[in-house]
Amino acid sequence: MSRMHNPAHPGELLREYLPESMSIGEVAERLGVSRQSLSAVLNGRAGVSADMALRLSQALGTSAEMWLSMQVAHDLWKAAQTSKPRVKRIAA
Fold first, then answer.
1. Distance between start and end Cα atoms, the chain
2. What are the 10-residue block averages of pLDDT along the chain, 92 residues in total?
């Protein structure tokens, strides 16, 4: 399976879904989360959790799976960029 080169954090795409006329505080209130937690996602400091994915799905008419897939792709790419400990294969 080929992986995307440096996939975007879901917060980057989320910014495109939000109306420019709506403040982060208002969006957070509508989602039922704190302004700080939404800001952390939008700025790539926090990942999209399953709970957040469900909230985004309901509020934006998207699928929760879309947000979680983006988060997993981003997390896997980031993890692949760091050095890994040696592991030994486990044979069944």
1. 23
2. 78 97 98 98 98 98 98 94 88 85
